[in-house]
Amino acid sequence: MLYWIKGKVNGGKIKEKKNYNPDRHRNSFTYEIKFNKAIDLLKEIAPYLIIEAKRKRAELIINNYKKVTLRNGRYNIEQSQKREKFYEEFMSIK
What we know:
The protein has two domains: 1-33, no CATH class; 35-94, no CATH class. It is 55% helix and 9% strand. It contains four helices and two strands; from the N terminus they run αββααα. Strands 1-2 form a two-stranded antiparallel sheet. It is globular and about 50 Å long.
């Protein structure tokens, strides 16, 4: 299923997670996409999100994430405060 999603999204990485107890657990995988591709995917799926909190969080990311997240990761005090406010607003949506 992850390979199908990766093909539809046209990007990202599938990573195998370490299985510490193969006798009791099956291998597991994660799918990872970053920044622009993740936001583009959210834009596509947001109208179909049924759970209101998830839809609101998706809309918050779509509308504000790029404004508060610098690509180089170097934040001055004002930028750090904006990013922290964004995080607190994101986490307050329940």
